[in-house]
Amino acid sequence: MTCPPGVAAAPLGGIAAAPLVGYTVGVTAARRSEELTALLERRGARVVNAPAIRIVPLADDAELMAATSGCVSRPPDIVVVTTGIGFRGWMEAADGWGLGEPLRAGLAAAQVVARGPKARGAIRASGLREGWSPDSESMTEVLQHLLAAGVAGRRVVVQLHGEPLSEFRETLAAAGADVVGVPVYRWAKPADVRPLQRLIESVAGCQLDAVVFTSAPAVTSLLQSSCEMGLEQQVLAALNGDVLAACVGPVCARPFDLRGVPAVWPERGRLGSLVREIVEQLPARRRPLKVNGRTLEVRGRGVMLDGAFVEIPPAPLAVLRALASRAGRVLSRSELLAALPGDSENAHVVEMAVSRLRNLTGEPNLVRTVVQRGYQVRLDP
Question: Which CATH fold topology does 289-376 show?
């Protein structure tokens, strides 16, 4: 079989059988990004890596040491452990200061609440036992449990995970608790922000099909950086439209929730479950179109034509995306020019994009020219 220029043939039993072939996924993780990338690539996705944060340990931080000393001198009534890595880091830092044993003794007498299985594992590894843990790994459920049990007059220690958890702590304080935050680590922007900036530009231009997040700070960092780049509105529009925001869990998705972005996450906060969620969600979001007897599906960096992927450069793909999103309607050259990346005012750019699109797909009737009116993707009856 001979393929048109730019068309990747679909080898029998090869990558065409992979559910994410043709999709481009951005990965923002600072930790375990190689594992996440491998899981996505194994399913056919092209992965763009751009860490959104770097974790700054606080082993020598005066604030963490002060909070630890406070837990030793005034043991808590309740301890909320939010992450496994954070709790382990806290115990290791306390051991380094010679406070590990008295800290564990004080925590052993408290009611220990674990947010999820990783937190439970870290608690048990330290020789302690959790008293309660939610099924959902949700901080909201943790908060509801504590408020129902009553926290008035009780000292509640909350192990933070890079975010201040201000609303959570303020609600407990309003209910009469003495709340102490333990900042085990903080996050900062990556040392080299250029990959993140390129990722944000790709999101704003809808050149990605999905962006994956494994922590709430990574979501916050991407949103803050997009604002600094002057692309906040474009990024939010993309995440509310063609670009899927996939998070490892509801805590990770919280900053999106506050901005009205519809993120998705798996029931279990595991990388494998997160990838399975993406595999399920992405194809369901794309509506195949029947055009001139061919099955067309527009994706982040190209199109699927009858099950074979064709990579398309940004300009012709932007034209096709605009036409496909309003299939059947004739769009003028000025309307298509507005959909193109950049600030060109030359209508000839649209003609060049359409010509290149036809050449790359080998399908001259994919986009129809409507004389003196513009262009159209006309659906089959």
Answer: Arc Repressor Mutant, subunit A (1.10.10)
Q: Which CATH class is domain 15-53+190-285?
A: alpha beta
Q: CA torsion sign, 201 to 203 to 207 to 213? A: positive
Instruction: Name 304's bridge partners.
Output: 297, 309
Report the candidate in 226, 235, 244 with the shortest Cα–Cα distance to residue 205.
Answer: 235
- 46-to-15, 21, 42, 210, 292 alpha-carbon distances in Å: 12, 8, 10, 11, 28
d(CA 181, CA 158): 5
Question: What's the CA gap between 337 and 331, in Å, rounded?
Answer: 10
- Say if residue 116 is exposed, middle or buried (CB neighbours under 10 Å; 0-12, 13-18, 19+): buried
Q: How does pLDDT run across 121-175, given as a tens digit for each residue?
A: 999 999 999 999 998 778 889 999 999 999 999 999 999 876 778 899 999 999 9
CATH number of 56-187: 3.40.50.10090
Token pair 């990722």 is at which residue?
199
Listed by start position, the domains of the chain span 15-53+190-285, 56-187, 289-376
CA dihedral angle for residue 314, residue 198, residue 53, residue 165, rounded to 10 degrees: -60
Answer whether 15-53+190-285 and 289-376 agree in fold.
Answer: no
Closest CA to 25 of 228, 277, 378, 366: 277
